[in-house]
Amino acid sequence: MNKKIIFFTLIILITITFSVIAFKPAEVVIIGPQFHEQDYFVEELDIIANELGIKIKYNGMSDPETYIINNPNSKSSIAIIPNPQGVVNLAERKLIINLDDISVDNDSISSLYSKHLKSIVSHKGNIYAGWIRLFPNSLIWYDISKFQQHNIKVDNFETLLQHTKQIADTGISPWCANSESSASTGWIQTNWLEDILLTKYGPHIYDDWSDLKINASNIKIYLSIKHLEEFIFYENHIHNGPQSIINKEFRNLPKVMLDDSKDCFLSWSGHYFRYYIPEEYVYLEDYAVLPLPKINFDNSIVGIGDNIVLTKSNDLSRQVISKILSKNFGEVWSTNKDSHYISANRNFDKNKIINELTLYEYTVVHEALSKNLFKFDASEIMARPIGSNKLWILFNEYIKEGPQNLVKLLNSIDKEI
C-alpha cells in the first residue's frame, strides 16, 4: 500500500514538474522607437504583465512604421508610433485595427482626448490610435540669474520682444538660438512658425495650415514669419548673429545659455531642451521655463506625443492597450526623480509626479488641452515632402539670404503644395 502511495505521489510530482517546465505564459510583443526612459516604460509594462499573468516584450527600433509595412506577419500585435501621420498611413494601408470599441477605465477611448488629438489619428471616421504621452514645444527657457538681472517682462509676446530688443541695443545679445541639426536643420524654425501662427491666429487657421488648405504665401503665414523676422534679424538680438541659428549645433544650447561668460540667457526651445542640460545645473535654481507668451490666444501650446496602435486583433492585446492608455499607467514611472513622463490621459493624477519640471510641463500641456489649444506639430502632420523637407529648406534659405527673399521662398513652397 505504501509503495502504491509513493508511486502515485512520484507520478503526480513528475507531472507537476513537467507541467511547470512546459508552461509558457502568453506573450504580447510591442514594437516602437528607442527613447529616453525606455527602462521606466518597460517597468510599467511588467506591472501590466503581472496583473494579467502574461509576458510583455518591447522591441525598440529606428522606424516602427516602416517595420510594420515590411513585416505584416511579425509576432508583434501592438506598436508605438511617434507621429500621427504614420498612424493614418498605416490605417490607409489596412495594417492596423481601429480602436473604437476599446474601453479604457470603463469608458470609451474617445472620451480621453481633445477633438484635435482624436481627429489626427482617425481615418474614415474611426480612431486608430490612443495617446500615451505628450510634450510641449512652445517654451521659453531662461538662465534665472541673468533673467532677473535684466528684469525681463513677459506679459505677452510683444512685450518680451520689445524688451529683448532694448537689451540688444545695449550691446548684449539676449537670445541663444543655435539650431543646426545636420540634414534636419530648419525643423526648429518650423516650430517657431507654428507657435506664432497658433497664438496669433488661433486653432482654425493652424489646422488649415497643418492640412495645407492654405498656401505658404497666405497672408497669415507671411505675417507670422514677419513676426519671426524681428526675432531673427534684429541687430545683436541673437548670440553670434542670425547665421549661428543654422550653423551652431542645437544640442549645445543649454550649455551656452547657462554659461556665465556668455551674454545670452533665453532660448525658444521645446521639451527636448531638457535632454541636453548639464547635470550640474538645477531647475528653479539655475534655470527655469515658461510657456511662449501669448499674442492673441493664451495657453496655446504646440507639441508632440506618442501614439499606440493595434496591429493584430486579439483579446489579450486589447487588454494590454487598454491598460497602457489607462489613468494609472505611468504612476510608478512618475515617482522617479528624473521622470519626464507626461500622461495624455486627462484623468491622470498629476500629484504622482515628483519631478517639478515635469509637473510644470504637465500643467502647461493639460491647461492647453482643456481649452482645445494644444495642437500637434503641424509640420509632422502635413504632407512629408513639405513638412519634413521643403519648409526646412525655406528657413535655411531665409536665414542665409535675409528677409528680402521671403515672398520668393513662400511662392516656391506653393509650387509643391
Characterize this entry briefly.
By secondary structure, the chain is an alpha/beta fold. It has helices at 2-22, 38-52, 64-70, 84-92, 115-119, 144-150, 157-169, 187-201, 203-210, 219-233, 244-247, 253-257, 315-324, 356-370, 384-401, 406-414, and strands spanning 27-33, 55-61, 78-81, 103-104, 107-108, 122-123, 126-127, 130-136, 139-143, 266-269, 287-291, 301-310, 374-376.
Class from helix and strand fractions: alpha/beta
In whole angstroms, how far apart are the ends?
Answer: 89 Å
**Subunit organisation of the chains:** single chain
Helix content: 40-55%
CATH class of the largest domain: Alpha Beta
| Estimated share of beta-strand residues | 5-15%
Number of beta strands:
13
Quick one: CATH superfamily of the largest domain?
A: Periplasmic binding protein-like II
**What characterizes the major β-sheet?**
6 strands, mixed
Overall mean pLDDT stands at 94
